[in-house]
Amino acid sequence: MRSQDPETRAGGKRRRRSRKPRPKPTAAAAVIAGAKPAVDADKAADVPLSKEEALEMRGHLRFLKEHRKVLALKVNAAEDLLLNGVREPTHRGVCQHLLDKVERSRVEAVAQRLEPAARVRLLEGVLGFAPDVAYVLLYLESLRDAAREEATPALSAALKRIDFAAISAAQMRRVLDLIVELYDARDRPQLMFSLLQSATFRAAFDDSAAALPAPLAEVVLPLRAVHAVVLRGKKNPFDAASLARGVAMLLQGRAKVLRAQSASTRSRLFDAGIDLCTERECAPGLLGLVDGFEPGERSTSEAMLRLAGWLLARGLEPDAKKLLARLSKEHPGFKLPQRWLTALEGPRIGGAGLAAAPGRGRDFWQEGMLLARQLPVWVSVGKPDAAPRFANAAALAESIAVPGVARVLESGTTRDGAPYWITPRLGRGGNELLGKQELAASDVSALCAEAVRILSSLADAGVRLPDARFRRFSVDPSGRLWLRDLLDAERATPEDARTAHLELARQFCSDAYDRVKGTLSDDPSSAETFAALVRLVEGGG
């Protein structure tokens, strides 16, 4: 007679067992992370299993019993008792011997015949006691087919555990195939960059490089260049274009991956990004990097200014303005950011931001900044009826290359038809300096010599100026004279231009002499220099 169920002995009624909710399936990443040998093989075979080991072993035995036929396990009497739960798993050697009977070739053959979901369950059981890389890869490939949403985190966990020093070239290619299939194009560069930090991964990678999947081949060389320059601080072993592509790949990836890098790596990545990257898509990465720099440091403020310039060069003015405003607030003594902000917030003429409302007229030169290049400039704006004259002068300036003649950086017309041109701001206007007698006699003598050379070179180029008044010129901080205004200049034969410019040179020197003649008696050497200059001009030099 069968013994009565203990739950029915009292009262004769069977009590219903409360059903606990089934535990959620173990996450695939946890399966990978928890994969380990079931038995500590470092201990002697006759050392009994610990309570924890015995508990885990019971689970493995249940799995083996369920899959005994599928796995074609051939067991002896003692092992049969273990599988059927008659004997407790205590003997280390017996348990290990039983687990060793699970053959990899058999597991792989069985897995090929199973549906993806069943294959995943089989491999989860095997990984519980045999964390072999072959099973890990087969498990990941099964997840890819059965539960793709779990495959990517599982692969991430596996990449942290795989011993790449012991992996075969064929297995490495399977790893790379999984990376291509499970990671999108945005994430692959950062993943590969992290993996390349491992010497064993690099070695295994190089061994299998000949058969790289095409999507990885496109990022390998750039990332190897980045690894050398950014991570290790070495010289670029490849070409600059490869390094630029690699840096752009990283900067366009996930912000958390960038933040996880060391301070020195982030600093070098920032420098490389500013110097090499041209894509606007790199801006979020660069902004994220600079946000992580040490606040209050001079190097941080310099990096912020460099980034503001980079943003302006790519037309990302709102981001640049925010960065400059923050920089001005945190470093009120740093005047350059405020000047850039003034240009950003001021009126616009072409690509230049002005320090004040634009004026118009022949003698008007407005200070501003060419925003895309962060270059101090002069902007000259004329009346609408002067548009042909401005256009002719701009075309003439672009057609010649004469030392001492400032380049026209930009020209055009505003929305209301006013013509303009933009030239580099080289020091101060000639009329401002010479007209206010702010130069010594020796300086004026040098400027006169510069004027003679400029006029002579223009004549040789076949260009004739209508006049050589001070307002056409500027003087840079080193004292060099520049011609900034070709308005109403015209083409002429070199002979005609020389004849005209000889008179202009005499007039320039005469006007300059009038400005400083009161000081010549106190400076004999300047007087002699000036006299020699006049003789030079009169002689046609």
Task: For the structure shown, list the relevant keywords.
single chain, 541 residues, alpha+beta, Phosphorylase Kinase, domain 1, Transferase(Phosphotransferase), domain 1, 6-stranded antiparallel beta sheet, 3-stranded antiparallel beta sheet, disordered N terminus
Write the layout of secondary structure elements.
Layout: H1 28-34, H2 51-66, H3 77-83, H4 92-99, H5 104-113, H6 116-127, H7 133-146, H8 148-161, H9 169-182, H10 188-195, H11 199-207, H12 214-231, H13 240-251, H14 255-259, H15 263-276, H16 283-291, H17 298-313, H18 317-330, H19 335-345, E1 348-349, E2 352-354, E3 366-370, E4 375-381, H20 387-399, E5 410-413, E6 419-424, E7 428-429, H21 430-434, H22 441-460, E8 463-464, E9 473-475, E10 481-483, E11 490-491, H23 494-520, H24 524-538
Helix pairs in contact: 1-8, 5-6, 6-7, 7-8, 7-9, 10-12, 12-13, 12-15, 13-15, 16-17, 17-18, 18-19, 22-23, 22-24, 23-24
Q: Explain this structure to me?
A:
The protein is of the alpha+beta class and 541 residues long. Among the domains are: 25-162, no CATH class; 349-424, Phosphorylase Kinase, domain 1, CATH 3.30.200.20; 429-538, Transferase(Phosphotransferase), domain 1 (Orthogonal Bundle). It contains 24 helices and eleven strands. The protein has helices at residues 28-34, 51-66, 77-83, 92-99, 104-113, 116-127, 133-146, 148-161, 169-182, 188-195, 199-207, 214-231, 240-251, 255-259, 263-276, 283-291, 298-313, 317-330, 335-345, 387-399, 430-434, 441-460, 494-520, 524-538, and strands spanning 348-349, 352-354, 366-370, 375-381, 410-413, 419-424, 428-429, 463-464, 473-475, 481-483, 490-491. It has a six-stranded antiparallel β-sheet with strand order 1-2-3-4-6-5, covered by helices on one side. A three-stranded antiparallel β-sheet has the order 7-9-10. It has a two-stranded antiparallel ribbon with strand order 8-11. The longest helix has 27 residues, at 494-520. It is rod-shaped and about 120 Å long. Mean pLDDT is 85; it is low at 1-26.
